[in-house]
């Protein structure tokens, strides 16, 4: 099994790259943002609660996030592994992911970090806001999401650093979806060859 975390700030291109990775390597694409938005769209009481966090640019609390995830995780079979997109976003989630994978007799194989400067994240999300229809793509909320990324999510990298599975990829300026995917693929293919 191949389990990959795609890591990066909001608007760093995680979703785009995850979809390409899932297709090329036959993995399940698990986006916690999509999972949460599906629950919101269902109109359930839980969805309303989730919306109140997302809408303000806050993270959904860990326990709630993990409850939602646990409903899905048991059904993640039939492919060659999972690409985790937008998860883990806190140290507690990173610990929970280890437990989840351990129970399946698996482990995290790679963590690929799409590094993009804050100004570019902001620009991209503002541009995306014109068509995304996402209530959390407003200038104020975008700034808050970037701040929370730095304060709460970026430290998660340290949790993994000593395991030798971390690779940083420049997702800035001159890179296109294709050139970034070429670099992403090179790390995955290299990993597959060495084992
Ligand atoms: P982006 O990367 O552009 O912020 P996502 O779809 O990954 O988009 O996340 C959108 C929102 O969903 C986040 O701002 C947060 O409120 C919520 N969310 C997604 N994943 C998680 C998670 N792992 N833990 C807590 N909240 C999450």
List the helices and strands and how they pair.
Layout: E1 2-8, H1 14-25, E2 28-31, H2 32-41, H3 45-55, H4 62-73, E3 81-85, H5 91-103, E4 110-115, H6 118-132, H7 139-153, H8 156-161, E5 166-170, H9 177-194
Parallel strand pairs: 1-3, 1-4, 2-3, 4-5
Helix pairs in contact: 1-9, 2-3, 6-7
The structure holds adenosine-5'-diphosphate (ADP).
Adenosine-5'-diphosphate is lined by residues 10-11, 14, 32-33, 36, 53-54, 57-60, 65, 86-87, 89, 93, 136, 145.
CATH class: Alpha Beta
What is the CATH H-level superfamily? P-loop containing nucleotide triphosphate hydrolases
Q: What is the second-level CATH architecture?
A: 3-Layer(aba) Sandwich
- Uncertain regions: pLDDT < 50 for 5+ in a row? none
């Amino acid at each position: 099994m191949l389990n990959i975390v795609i890591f990066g700030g909001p608007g760093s291109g995680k979703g785009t790259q995850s979809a390409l990775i899932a297709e090329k390597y036959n993995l399940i694409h698990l986006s916690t943002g999509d999972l949460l938005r599906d629950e919101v769209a269902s109109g359930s009481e839980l969805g309303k609660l989730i919306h109140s966090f997302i809408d303000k640019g806050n993270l959904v609390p860990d326990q709630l996030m993990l409850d939602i995830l646990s409903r899905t995780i048991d059904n993640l079979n039939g492919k060659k592994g999972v690409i985790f997109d937008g998860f883990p976003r806190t140290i507690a989630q990173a610990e929970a992911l280890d437990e989840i994978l351990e129970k399946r007799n698996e482990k995290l194989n790679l963590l690929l970090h799409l590094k993009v400067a804050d100004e570019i994240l902001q620009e991209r999300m503002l541009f995306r806001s014109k068509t995304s229809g996402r209530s959390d793509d407003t200038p104020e909320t975008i700034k808050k999401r970037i701040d929370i990324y730095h304060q709460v999510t970026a430290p998660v990298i340290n949790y993994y650093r000593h395991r030798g599975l971390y690779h940083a990829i420049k997702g800035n300026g001159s890179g296109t979806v294709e050139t970034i995917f070429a670099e992403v693929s090179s790390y995955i293919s290299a990993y597959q060859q060495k084992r």
